[in-house]
């Protein structure tokens, strides 16, 4: 279930900044038609930091409703307060979500022992499968492989999304955690290399606007057809890079709007619309990647 091309889904907002559920339904259909392997709903790309708790829960549940069992939905449940992450995990227990993606606490910079106790407490509060999420560039804390190995001993902690772009960690984590521990890339630019090192898939920003290409690329890679996968990846590389020309999800929401995937490219403050100087950069990357609807 947790392999291949999974999308870190954007949360569409209308002009007033409210959740646009019609666009959300369209996005779910787009990913089902494209062959995306799973949807991560209200992860950090989904602007979890600026949705209210009520909005957060409703967006995940609506995504489940629109999916109608046709594609697995993983709920973003991360928070920098352990009790809040536990609350989200409990709220989604029994709803039909396939699992939870839980980012390392941000800003408060816990120690490795603090990270262990944080994720342990969350896992013990629910039976839902837990995927750890390590993204030091956004959180200012690094979940080290040795700590991951301690956490992997907990039955329902089943994998990690690693956005460090450190490919040496794939082998290190496999040695410490075993072959069954799921390793997912959180970095599109190195995602295919991550698979070559033994990873299982990617939770992707690029898949928001190039879903079919990403799904095909990872199907090829995981079936051993790496040369064909590399061809697709080389075409998508400008997009992998330029979707981060400004803070994610600013560029990808602009791109999704330009492609007609969502009605508006609205973000919530403190994020603002893609700058005029960056717009042609992202537009050129879409063109180079041959991403069209």
Automatic annotation (TrEMBL):
Listed binding positions for pyruvate are: 45, 203
Mind telling me which residues the site (L-lysine inhibitor binding) is annotated on? Answer: 49, 80, 84, 106
PROSITE patterns in UniProt: DHDPS_1 (PS00665), DHDPS_2 (PS00666)
Q: Where is the active site?
A: 133 (proton donor/acceptor), 161 (schiff-base intermediate with substrate)
* Its biological purpose: Catalyzes the condensation of (S)-aspartate-beta-semialdehyde [(S)-ASA] and pyruvate to 4-hydroxy-tetrahydrodipicolinate (HTPA).
Q: Which NCBIfam families does the record match to this protein?
A: dapA
Protein name, UniProt field? 4-hydroxy-tetrahydrodipicolinate synthase
The protein's organism comes out as Photobacterium gaetbulicola Gung47
């Amino acid at each position: 279930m947790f392999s291949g091309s999974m999308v870190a889904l954007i949360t569409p907002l209308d002009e007033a900044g409210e959740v646009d559920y019609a666009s959300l339904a369209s996005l779910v259909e787009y990913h089902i038609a494209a062959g995306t392997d799973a949807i991560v709903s209200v992860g950090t790309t989904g602007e979890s930091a600026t949705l209210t708790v009520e909005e957060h829960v409703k967006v995940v549940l609506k995504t489940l409703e629109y999916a109608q069992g046709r594609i697995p939905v993983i709920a973003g449940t991360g928070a920098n307060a352990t009790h809040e992450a536990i609350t989200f995990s409990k709220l989604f227990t029994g709803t039909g979500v396939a699992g939870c993606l839980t980012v390392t606490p941000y800003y408060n910079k816990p120690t490795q022992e603090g990270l262990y106790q944080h994720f342990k407490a969350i896992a013990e509060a629910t039976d839902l499968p837990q995927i750890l999420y390590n993204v030091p560039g956004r959180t200012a804390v690094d979940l080290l492989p040795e700590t991951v190995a301690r956490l992997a001993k907990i039955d329902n902690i089943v994998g990690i999304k690693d956005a460090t772009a450190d490919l040496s960690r794939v082998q290190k984590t496999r040695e410490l955690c075993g072959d069954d521990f799921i390793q997912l890339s959180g970095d599109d630019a190195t995602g295919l290399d991550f698979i070559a090192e033994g990873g299982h898939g990617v939770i992707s920003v690029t898949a928001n606007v190039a879903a079919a290409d990403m799904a095909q690329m990872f199907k090829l890679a995981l079936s051993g057809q790496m040369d064909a996968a590399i061809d697709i990846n080389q075409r998508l590389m400008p997009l992998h890079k330029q979707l981060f020309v400004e803070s994610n999800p600013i560029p990808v929401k602009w791109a999704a709007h330009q492609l007609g995937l969502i009605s508006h490219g609205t973000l919530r403050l403190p994020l603002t619309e893609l700058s005029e100087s960056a717009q042609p950069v992202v537009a050129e990357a879409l063109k180079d990647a041959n991403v069209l609807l």
